């Protein structure tokens, strides 16, 4: 593995993580729809079949429950499957296998049967995708005990979190914000590993904290930049691990500013954003100068491409929410 | 590609015994030898006793519920007896007798129904998956275990059990299709007992037989009289052999009958009449096998007593084991969920521990 910092897209970082994991551990198997010679519709598995052979990275019949169920059996029998659900909404046929077995087998068998499975799910909008290609489905998984749920916002996090997810003996739903697949960034493989279960402060700030994950992190950073022009200092926390959730980092950040806005693309009702707002309120109540606000998608199905911008949290919406954080009390 | 018609099952379910327990000659199917038949008979007698005992334990309030395989014991014991040590069994909730035949302690098997935990035995100890409660999902796991074994070049066949109702589930189809495409050494064994709780087979499928479903996936299908122990043994043995020697997955449908209600909580008089059930009494697999063994003069009175004694001992151990008070510790609720527990679960475990300490004050 090269140690020179280079520029990589998130797609390339994920591809490198799979390649390195497969090279290091012969029990890692990659399978799903079109992941073989094609390299996946997003090219995340590009070249893996050529390099590791048809056994290690293979196309399955087109059936998501089948893919997840096959992974359960292979995991029972000593393998570490990394499966790809082609798009967020196409993962739903696998839901029973994920919820009733992948999430529960370890518990069911009192720890005797581990499920070291990684379920990769390209998710969320922002790419002009048609119906069934833009869902933010993280809450379904986060609500299911037994799963870990992570979502990177940078190429470096994508690489390290995927390596960790594959090495984990617990099942990990790995949510890939597809609109960030092609974002390039300096990538230093020797940089400190993020660690599943840790959030990170992406931008320091003193007036309010924006809490975001996955596709909403760049939006939050942009909003912080815009606010800075107007003289308001916004801190940005990237949650990156939804389960387990890093209460410590998130709450320390909120306590330091006394105000918080949670930014997430998914519909807001009964969402991960709601959970974060509740946790922050419960734990930081006495440090808060205003109620925790949420900027989320509306409670509607993901819109058609020509209307999607109205659903996605925008810089303006984030700034409007920040404006609502009872600043007059400070004066 | 195989000749299409080769994949179709026989016109009628394969039989090696007639109704009165007389052997029927089948040139294509070797009749199991006496040793095999006696082993099956022993397992059948024990299995019947286990079914009866479990039912009694439900009535005594010791088990929450029990889905009995009464009448299906030939399928139960054969499914396990045809397997080798490196093979795997994937049972459903109705397959307790198959699990016990594979060597798992009945008390451990019944942990689920006793309410102590969701599964009570170590799946790796006898290569028996936890009994599946959701329908057909376990068939895909069976394909995964078989595929992993094949990738490592291991000699492992997986016996995957399901009922007639489960063949309507999507996972049944996905499992057959995946297994066929991956050439996974799996024997899919359907016990068609005519009912999915209250719904009869005619409401489940319009196919000529459940074994006919194999051809759509390029999987060889066979059907057998599920109450004919020698036939079930021979047909499953042949299927396991074909899967083991690289023939890919096999589909076997046993035609049998659920003699009792779905579980003790079910009232089968609401959906079937005794006129329908009664004819199956004379087709009881135990009666038919016993008649054969007596005819062959391999079942002496002494041997029969010895087998009955063994069944009684198993039942006594069940009574004793199930009646023993066990208190699953509440801390277990958090202990097994993750290999590496989350801080949130550690917090919640502490909340429960605190609650318990205050209860005991």
From TrEMBL, chain A:
- Return the protein name: 3-methyl-2-oxobutanoate dehydrogenase (2-methylpropanoyl-transferring)
Enumerate the spans annotated as Transketolase-like pyrimidine-binding domain. 8-183
Q: Does the keyword Oxidoreductase apply?
A: yes
Query: Which domain of life does this protein belong to?
Result: Bacteria
- State whether keyword Oxidoreductase applies: yes
Looking up InterPro entries in the UniProt record yields: THDP-binding, Transketo_C/PFOR_II, Transketolase-like_Pyr-bd, Transketolase_C
The root-end lineage is: Bacteria, Bacillati, Actinomycetota, Actinomycetes, Streptosporangiales
> Which EC number(s) are documented for this chain?
1.2.4.4
Query: From which source organism is this entry?
Result: Nocardiopsis flavescens
The Swiss-Prot or TrEMBL record lists the needed cofactor(s) as: thiamine diphosphate
* GO terms for MF: branched-chain 2-oxo acid dehydrogenase activity; magnesium ion binding
Query: What processes in GO biological process is this protein linked to?
Result: branched-chain amino acid catabolic process; response to nutrient
> Which keywords label this protein?
Oxidoreductase, Pyruvate
Q: Which Pfam families match?
A: Transket_pyr, Transketolase_C
UniProtKB/TrEMBL annotation, chain B:
Instruction: Specify the superkingdom.
Output: Bacteria
The residues covered by the Dehydrogenase E1 component domain are 47-313
The cofactors required by this protein are:
thiamine diphosphate
Keyword Transport among record annotations = no
Pfam family for this entry, one: E1_dh
Which UniProt keywords are given for this protein, alphabetically ordered?
A: Oxidoreductase, Pyruvate, Thiamine pyrophosphate
What GO MF terms are annotated?
Answer: magnesium ion binding; oxidoreductase activity, acting on the aldehyde or oxo group of donors, disulfide as acceptor
What CDD domains has UniProt attached to this entry? TPP_E1_PDC_ADC_BCADC
For this protein, the record's InterPro entries field holds: Alpha-ketoacid_DH_E1_comp (IPR050771), DH_E1 (IPR001017), PdhA/BkdA (IPR017596), THDP-binding (IPR029061)
Identify the stretch(es) annotated as Disordered. Answer: 1-29
One of the GO BP terms on file: branched-chain amino acid catabolic process
Q: Which PANTHER family match?
A: 2-OXOISOVALERATE DEHYDROGENASE SUBUNIT ALPHA, MITOCHONDRIAL
Q: Which NCBIfam families match?
A: PDH_E1_alph_x (TIGR03181)
User: What is the name of this protein?
Assistant: Pyruvate dehydrogenase E1 component alpha subunit
Instruction: Report the source organism.
Output: Nocardiopsis flavescens
